[in-house]
């Protein structure tokens, strides 16, 4: 009840609009027009980031419109001071009339050269690191040096096959007779299971150097045995000829020829 | 700038040619750096390397061989 009696005082504040449009008749009621007052909240003092943020026109509307007086917010844009970055800008771009295409090469040179030099150095470093780690997987030089053996050929009589140990495997060195050489040279290559001519397997036809491991299942063949006068594997009956080539039996490949070289007439290095 | 501008346009503008140039330069850079560093190392270790002292030892070896042959 009290609110109804007090409504008369509050009436101007509840009004949505306070202007009256005349309809030509005498107004029945003289509207109460409150004094013109500032509709806009005063801008806060921009001393902190938050107060500066609050002054931006991105917040909720701060002005109430009642149809009279200014209702827009005007932010000054002619008297705002903004920083001058010309000290940090490139000289070529400071002139707004200059075409950027004409000075782009000069501006890019430093960036491109530094990036390119960095790329070159990086590629070199990457290659060095990769080479370092990959080469660490290879056998060391001392191991490789020990993995060579020297054989005095003058101690092997003609027609004899001698067995040495080389890198944990038996190594056959055969001093072939002229008869054996001519026989092996004459074998037609296309009749062989693993076609290799005798010249491909020997550097000096007098000397045959093969690894004495049967290519079938890895037994050690017996020298000067078998149907072809070379080697014979007793495990499953593979016959190799005097050039170490498979001629009969289950083995698929010829006896392996290791890398070897003749230092002089009487010295052979295998490995 | 007269030299730089066409180089920039033809080689450095495209990423593909830029990488190609960098890769090619790496070969020369590697060779040059290796040679320079080796030269510095050999200069610092002068008279200590095998190639500097080789002659002193070679004579002895030859003498030894002669002895064994005799």
UniProtKB/TrEMBL annotation, chain A:
<dbReference type="GO" id="GO:0051537">
    <property type="term" value="F:2 iron, 2 sulfur cluster binding"/>
</dbReference>
<dbReference type="InterPro" id="IPR004192">
    <property type="entry name" value="Rieske_TM"/>
</dbReference>
<dbReference type="GO" id="GO:0008121">
    <property type="term" value="F:quinol-cytochrome-c reductase activity"/>
</dbReference>
<keyword id="KW-0001">2Fe-2S</keyword>
<keyword id="KW-0472">Membrane</keyword>
<keyword id="KW-0408">Iron</keyword>
<dbReference type="InterPro" id="IPR005805">
    <property type="entry name" value="Rieske_Fe-S_prot_C"/>
</dbReference>
<dbReference type="GO" id="GO:0005743">
    <property type="term" value="C:mitochondrial inner membrane"/>
</dbReference>
<dbReference type="InterPro" id="IPR014349">
    <property type="entry name" value="Rieske_Fe-S_prot"/>
</dbReference>
<dbReference type="InterPro" id="IPR017941">
    <property type="entry name" value="Rieske_2Fe-2S"/>
</dbReference>
<feature type="domain" description="Rieske">
    <location>
        <begin position="173"/>
        <end position="269"/>
    </location>
</feature>
<keyword id="KW-0479">Metal-binding</keyword>
<keyword id="KW-0249">Electron transport</keyword>
<comment type="similarity">
    <text>Belongs to the Rieske iron-sulfur protein family.</text>
</comment>
<keyword id="KW-0812">Transmembrane</keyword>
<protein>
    <recommendedName>
        <fullName>Cytochrome b-c1 complex subunit Rieske, mitochondrial</fullName>
        <ecNumber>7.1.1.8</ecNumber>
    </recommendedName>
</protein>
<dbReference type="Pfam" id="PF02921">
    <property type="entry name" value="UCR_TM"/>
</dbReference>
<keyword id="KW-1015">Disulfide bond</keyword>
<keyword id="KW-0496">Mitochondrion</keyword>
<keyword id="KW-0679">Respiratory chain</keyword>
<keyword id="KW-0813">Transport</keyword>
<dbReference type="InterPro" id="IPR036922">
    <property type="entry name" value="Rieske_2Fe-2S_sf"/>
</dbReference>
UniProtKB/TrEMBL annotation, chain B:
<protein>
    <recommendedName>
        <fullName>Complex III subunit 9</fullName>
    </recommendedName>
</protein>
<keyword id="KW-0812">Transmembrane</keyword>
<dbReference type="GO" id="GO:0045275">
    <property type="term" value="C:respiratory chain complex III"/>
</dbReference>
<dbReference type="GO" id="GO:0006122">
    <property type="term" value="P:mitochondrial electron transport, ubiquinol to cytochrome c"/>
</dbReference>
<keyword id="KW-1133">Transmembrane helix</keyword>
<comment type="function">
    <text>Component of the ubiquinol-cytochrome c oxidoreductase, a multisubunit transmembrane complex that is part of the mitochondrial electron transport chain which drives oxidative phosphorylation. The complex plays an important role in the uptake of multiple carbon sources present in different host niches.</text>
</comment>
<dbReference type="Pfam" id="PF05365">
    <property type="entry name" value="UCR_UQCRX_QCR9"/>
</dbReference>
<dbReference type="InterPro" id="IPR036656">
    <property type="entry name" value="QCR9_sf"/>
</dbReference>
<dbReference type="InterPro" id="IPR008027">
    <property type="entry name" value="QCR9"/>
</dbReference>
<keyword id="KW-0249">Electron transport</keyword>
<keyword id="KW-0813">Transport</keyword>
<keyword id="KW-0496">Mitochondrion</keyword>
<comment type="similarity">
    <text>Belongs to the UQCR10/QCR9 family.</text>
</comment>
<keyword id="KW-0679">Respiratory chain</keyword>
<keyword id="KW-0999">Mitochondrion inner membrane</keyword>
<keyword id="KW-0472">Membrane</keyword>
<dbReference type="GO" id="GO:0005743">
    <property type="term" value="C:mitochondrial inner membrane"/>
</dbReference>
<comment type="subunit">
    <text>Component of the ubiquinol-cytochrome c oxidoreductase (cytochrome b-c1 complex, complex III, CIII), a multisubunit enzyme composed of 3 respiratory subunits cytochrome b, cytochrome c1 and Rieske protein, 2 core protein subunits, and additional low-molecular weight protein subunits.</text>
</comment>
